[in-house]
Amino acid sequence: MIDLHCHLLPGLDDGAVTLDESLAMARMAAADGVGVIACTPHITPGVYDNDGATIRARVDELQSALDTAEIPIALVVGADAHIAPDFVARLRCGAIPSLNDTRYVLVEPPHHFMPPMLEEFFAGLLSSGYVPVLTHPERLSWLSRRYDVMRRLFDLGVWMQITAGALLGEFGAGPRFWAERMLRDGLGHILATDAHDSRRRPPRLRAGFEAAAGLLGEVEAANLVYWRPLAILENRDAANAAAPMISARALNPPRPHTPSFAAARR
């Protein structure tokens, strides 16, 4: 499986604090059947002022530590970037890294209010050649009042990343309801952990896959955790990525497969 949203890098945001914590999270992810993780620390102006150069350096350092510890996880760059007026300019100059340097980029909207001109913001990203992947929409407190906006963003071409833990009820009944509804309505493109540590918010993608399989069947669940994420990291048209018949057992090999795009980084 491939986890495209994980706060694995130590000391950059509210995710892992120490290298030991990062290694513990990576071991958990590998045991869970994950072979590739996108390191996506917050980029929130004035709060988490991370940038592409810092994130790349930290990814290389952590990859070396994983290799030394013989943890079979391949890392790629990314960021959980908060909406800001200069978003496109910062993408173009590399201050905001896209997922594995592709046209796909994680975008985090405000949790407690819908910003003005939200649809125009995403339209601008799309017209600039990027594919925004909106993170954890099911947990936005304003979603219940503006579900119509999510439908329009989907129709516009915005991708939606559902959180595995939301399907398991880890964020409460509301986020679980909306995660399930979005998947049933066909509005969820990928499933990711948004893991922050090894205890309170651990990297548990398999349980989310199984919950999604219960709702949609194993083939679509595999699309959520492997086939579409793989197409994203290879910068392909992920919308057309489709899974062959695949079982849950097949997604849990003894040593996770490292795709060629990630092997080049190691």
UniProtKB/TrEMBL annotation:
UniProt-listed Enzyme Commission number(s): 3.1.3.48
InterPro entries: Caps_polysacc_synth_CpsB/CapC, Pol/histidinol_Pase-like
Highest taxon, organism lineage: Bacteria
Entry keyword set: Hydrolase
GO MF terms held by the record: manganese ion binding; protein tyrosine phosphatase activity
Catalyzed reactions: O-phospho-L-tyrosyl-[protein] + H2O = L-tyrosyl-[protein] + phosphate
Assigned protein family: Belongs to the metallo-dependent hydrolases superfamily. CpsB/CapC family.
Protein known as: protein-tyrosine-phosphatase
